[in-house]
C-alpha cells in the first residue's frame, strides 16, 4: 500500500512535469515569436528611419534644385539685360562712327576745294608774275632777259 500511496502522490507530480515541459515548449515558442516580432519591429523601425532619411535627402535635393534653377533664371535674365545694354551701346557707337565718317568726307571735300583754290591762286600769281616779268622794252634789255631765261 505504501507503494500505491507513493504512486498516487507521485502521479500528479509526474503529470505536472509533463505539463511543465509542454508549458516550456509553448513558452519557448512564444519567446521565439516575441523575438521574431521584436526583430521585425526593429527592422521596420530601421526601414522607417531610412525612409525618413531618404525623404529628407529628396527634400534637400529638391530645394537645391529649385535654388539652382532660380539662380540660372537670374543669370539668364542678367545676361539678357547685359546683351541688350551692349546692343544699345553698339548702336550708339555705330551712329557716332557714321557721323564721324560724314564729317571726314566733308573735311576731305573742303580740303580738296582749298587745294584747288591754292592751285588756281598759284597759277594766277604765276601768270601775273609772268606778265609782270614780261619782256622789257628795248632790244638790249629784251636780249638780256631771254639770255637769262635761256631762251635762245
Radius of gyration from the alpha-carbon trace, in angstroms: 62 Å
Uncertain segments = none
Biggest sheet, in brief? Answer: none
User: Number of helical segments?
Assistant: 2
Computed structural class: mainly alpha
Which band does the percent of strand residues land in?
under 5%
Provide the domain count: 1
Please tell me what the overall shape is: rod-shaped
Mean pLDDT: 86
Give the N-to-C terminal Cα separation: 195 Å
Structure, described:
The chain is an all-alpha fold. It has one domain (11-132). The chain has two helices and no strands. It has helices at residues 2-132, 139-148. The longest helix is centred in the middle third of the chain and has 131 residues, at 2-132. The mean pLDDT is 86.
Can I get a quick summary?
It is built from two helices and no strands. With 152 residues, it is mainly α.
Topology, element by element:
Layout: H1 2-132, H2 139-148
List keywords for this structure.
rod-shaped, 152 residues, mainly alpha
